[in-house]
Amino acid sequence: MGTSGVIVRAVNALTARWAQTAPTGSGTVFSAAGVWPLLAFLAAGADGGARQELTEAVGLPAGQAAGAARHMLASLDAMRGVDAAVGMWTGRTLELREEWLADIPLGALGVLTGDPEADASALDAWASKRTGGQIDRMPLRPDGNTEFVLASALALRTEWFRPFTEGLLWPESGPWEGRGLAALHRTTSLLDRVGVAWTPAGTVTELKVLGDTGIDVHLLLGEDGMSPGQVLGAGVDILARTRAVLPGTRLPYGDAGPGLSVRRVRHPRPTPPTLNVTTVPFSVSARHDLLDQSPLFGLTTATTDKEEGHFPGIGSRPLKIQNGAQAATATFGALGFRAATVAAFAMTASGVPEERYLTTEVDATFDRPFGFLAVHRTSRLVLAAGWVTDPEPYREDEFSSTPWA
Fold first, then answer.
1. Does residue 264 surpass a pLDDT of 60?
2. CATH number of the domain enclosing 293
3. What's the structural domain count of the chain?
4. Does the reported pTM lie above 0.90?
5. Of 146, 117, 83, 13, which is closest to residue 341 (Cα–Cα)?
6. Same domain, yes or no, for 260 and 323?
7. Domain span at residue 239?
């Protein structure tokens, strides 16, 4: 398998794993392709436990990861209807390793001023420009401790070879029952645009909608009770050809799959087989805190303090992951489809910086709600515990002008 095939397999595997975490009761959108190159660049500059975890998340040896990420970004940017970019911003005192920078696309490097408001504005402008305005805000905000930001942007668009006709849909069962919905209709003689796959969790209907830029959208409908992860995972398996699909030309008559019926109909003249499609337009947006699922992205160790940092191959200062996030949006309509994603990781200093002189400073300030424990000294048994939220007010006539020492 060539480099591109290895990357596709790795990114799709991450997509399937991420899908397993998708919520059942609400819409969402995410892009493993937008996160994977960043994880690969991080893996190339990491060491120790962080390198091992990132390598597992990326699905490639760390020594090959940065080159694969560069290859992927170049391949994405060469696709019709796709714009891909990577950007990075460093604090003025952070010196990046030349070996690591060799795999970073030219023109990607910027500078953090240390002013969080100014830096956030610059990052937002980059996100908006790189996604054609679909995402106008970087999904994370730098602060005064941010040493490094690594981001990717991905925008895609396609128009259908054959547009849908807009109409009205009244579902007769299910969660949308009794609601008048905007609908999209289309008829084609290409029955193989639809198919049915069988999975351990149930059957899944797949419909392919082809776009004019070489970007298609596969709509996937599972049986009642299947989770988003199960349905989307089946779609990934279909793409990998590890899940067989019975094409539309071979479907049995009757209820052939979720939302799928095959019947015989009489016509007054010879008519080719017909696939009638009805769906709904949709627009969905989401923001994902990538550290909420740090094991999925190989980031558990990389967020912890370590005196020498976790990324010695990236820069001269000890670094750890400060935060990571992705913003994504997608719209499916009568004429086509568009989507965009911006993912970013911020880094801050790791460990305790070396200081030449020692001194002692103690500050004990109880100026907000606090708790207390009454403890038996010998046994350390807690005898009473409480939480203070309403301290007595200061009344000038009850206190002398000289405070207690």
1. yes
2. 3.30.497.10
3. 2
4. no
5. 83
6. no
7. 190-273
Query: Which residues in 209-231 are b (16+ Cβ under 10 Å) and which e?
Result: bebeeebebebbbbbeebebbbb
Same domain for 345 and 211, yes or no, is no
Residue 309 tokens read as: 């940092």
Strand order in 275-279's β-sheet? 165-169, 181-188, 275-279
- Secondary structure (3-state) at 308: coil
CA distance 58 to 64: 10
pLDDT in tens, 232-254: 899 998 888 899 999 998 888 88
Residues 14 and 113 in one domain: yes
Q: Say yes or no: 269 and 310 in one domain.
A: no
pLDDT in tens, 194-209: 999 999 999 989 888 8
DSSP label at residue 298: T
- pLDDT tens for each residue of 340-375: 999 999 998 876 544 444 443 444 444 443 333 222
- Token pair 């940017």: residue: 77
What is the torsional sign of CA 111, 116, 118, 119?
positive
Burial class of 232 by CB neighbour count within 10 A (0 to 12, 13 to 18, 19+): buried
Beta bridge partners of 287: 327
Buried b (16+ CB within 10 A) or exposed e, 121-150: ebbbebbbebbeebbeebbbbbeeebbbbb
Find the length of the chain. 405
Q: What is the DSSP string of 168-182?
A: EE--SSSTTTT--EE
**Tens digits of per-residue pLDDT, 293-306?**
999 999 999 999 88
d(CA 170, CA 183) in angstroms, rounded, equals 9
Predicted confidence at residue 379, as pLDDT, reads 31
The rounded distance, in Å, linking the Cα atoms of 333 and 259 is: 20
CA 298, distance to chain mean position in Å, is 14
Regarding whether 334 and 224 lie in a shared domain, the answer is no
The reply to whether 244 and 321 lie within a common domain is: no
Sign of CA pseudo-dihedral 263, 265, 270, 272:
negative
Please indicate, yes or no, whether residues 269 and 292 belong to a single structural domain of this protein. no
Q: Would you state the pLDDT for residue 393?
A: 54
